[in-house]
Amino acid sequence: MPMDDAYDPAGDRPGPLRVLVFGAAMRAGSVNARLASLVARLVADTGATVDLASMRDFVMPLYDGDAEDAEGLPSGALALRDRIERCEAFVISSPEYNASVPGVLKNAIDWVSRVHPQPFKDKHALLVSASPSMVGGNRGLWALRVPLEHLGTRVYPDMFSLARAHQGFTEDGQLTDSGLQQRLAETVEAFLRLVEADMRYVCLERRWYEFLGDRTEAPITQRAED
User: Fold this and answer.
1) Are 27 and 18 a contacting pair, CB within 8 Å?
2) Cβ–Cβ under 8 Å, residues 110 and 63
3) What is the pLDDT of residue 8?
4) Ramachandran angles phi, psi of 121, nearest 5°
5) Please, are residues 111 and 73 in contact by the beta-carbon 8 Å criterion?
6) How does residue 61 score in pLDDT terms, banded at 50, 70 and 90?
7) Contact between residue 111 and residue 95 where contact means Cβ atoms under 8 Å apart
8) Predicted confidence (pLDDT) at residue 13 exceeds the cutoff of 70
9) Taking residues 190-206, what's their average pLDDT?
10) Cβ contact 162:130 at 8 Å
11) CA 59 from chain center: how many Å?
12) Which residues contact 149 (CB under 8 A, 6 or more apart)?
């Protein structure tokens, strides 16, 4: 992070956090697009700068190593890379396909991970989902954590899943259940407080151990970016 965005002991507050929020469904009327829009408004309410996007903004073919060697990374993957690099944190609102990650989202992660250095490392992420089912897409979020954490993303422990999402929104885009609305707002606020503490107060030594290759003597774990 640039030094002028770091914590200033003299008291000058840096600019607002930048947060990318995107729905991982391709369908325009997806309940996850509606949930992403709601999360974006909640993020903006905290004073952060929001970049709201859709998976349709990042069209790319199925990953093919031969195509990568011949043509390089597709423009959609590079566009997603750019949007991730410009933020301190991102939120994904993802549907659940057969109790797992939608193929289009996993494909996007696979393409973007081919950038060197790849941009997921040390970013903070909040995962949310919406589904007509009674589990709200939660199983897909557990699967989504795997590739993101493997790439070094700091995925927030608390996730949010909206069950019976086809009945879950009011006409103005809020949640029909006021208790769930409050819980989502509190989750977003707590997530951003953690991101701000991590990004602003760089004087705090932190350790992040996960993989056998981590350097345990380093103040901040060195992870492979390849």
Assistant:
1) no
2) yes
3) 38
4) -60, 125
5) yes
6) very high
7) no
8) no
9) 80
10) yes
11) 18
12) 155, 210
